Give the backbone structure.
Amino acid sequence: MIATLERPALKPEPTEKDRIAELQQTISASRLSLWLGCKLKFFFRYVLQIKKAPTPSMHAGSSVHAVLQAWSMSRWRREPFATERFKALFNVRWLALQAESKINWDGEEEADRSSAWNALAHYFQETPIRADERPEAVEVAVSADLSARGLPTLVGVIDLVRSGGRIVDFKLTAKTPDPEMVAHMHGTQLTAYSLLYRDATGREEGGLELHHLVRTKAPKCIITSMPPATEQQVTRLFRAMESYQEGVARQDFIPSPGFGCLGCEFINECRRH
């Protein structure tokens, strides 16, 4: 008797209905922020899952983020700091991430690469984080089951938790940020991190920090420090999550035309929709 091997059945591609159902099970700060910003853009990215090549600024941010993660892990392991090591890592990550997708540099790759590294090198010099300060957590994935409130599970990845429970999020930017404006703009994300930290540890965070690495001609390091999330901010986050949950369920994928459309990668799809 000759044995025959059966080919495993191919799993069918998820339908839009499947993806919508899945999106109602969990929620992240980035998904929620996009939903609040433009529901049609959310539809293109998360329901249709249209893939777009990273912009030069996104590529620079990913490269810098990878180095900052390694730097934080190095301090957690109590390894000595060496600029040359992190510059070499930056160059490796810059090339590796670029190999994964085609980026339209428009002749500015070297300028972008240089400004990103200069901002990183300046941050290493000016950072308020001491060399001997050991992190509580680095690039940690966390989740909070909010089903008791009738809400999806909140998920997220926190860049860094400093000693004393201070939550840090790194940002690479081309413009000097206004502290009050960035605190408002990133309020949803930071409050979500507070909630995730509290659920994971059973205690309140020690504070929230935005570390902006500004890649201007003369690089800057801008630190925005905020107190722990207030009850009002947490309630506001819950209300936003309710809006997300109800809106996704009824497929409320409407556009939000505005100045944000100028740099939107889905502008052509939006016009045709």
In short: DSSP finds ten helices and six strands in the chain. The two ends are 58 Å apart (CA to CA). The first helix runs from residue 16 to 23.
